Each structure stands twice: as C-alpha cells, then as structure tokens.
Amino acid sequence: IKSAVSIPSNISEGSERRTSKDFRHFIHIALGSAAELRTQTHIAREADVVSSEIANQWISELKTISRMLQALASYLDRKL
What parts of the chain have a pLDDT lower than 70? Predict the structure, then answer.
C-alpha cells in the first residue's frame, strides 16, 4: 500500500519544488515506487492474494503510469 500512495505523493511533492531538476528527482522516485508496486503485485498474484485477472490489470496500468512518468522525466531533462 505504501508504494501505491508514494507514486502520486512524490509527483505532488516534486511539482511544488522550485526547479525542474528537483521535480525530475521526485518523478524518478515515483518511477521506483511504480516498479516496487508492480513487483508486489506479481508476488500477490503468485501467493493467490489477488486473482491473475486483477493483478494483470494492475500491472498493465502501472506500466502505463511508468511510461507517462518516463515521458515527463524526459521532458524535464530537455528543459535543463
């Protein structure tokens, strides 16, 4: 649960920072949290805590979120 909350929290915190460099740093932390949550979802699926259908949906959505965060990080890199 912590990593799920960490993704939007880091985006929000980073957006309030004064520089693009600081914002980019928090975007990368959010990317790490997304990777952590994907791993936790794989584990939950293997442990039969969640169904494969739900886990696969979450993983797909997390991949989309990660791509969006990567695109934002790339944009911020170009601004630096």
Answer: none
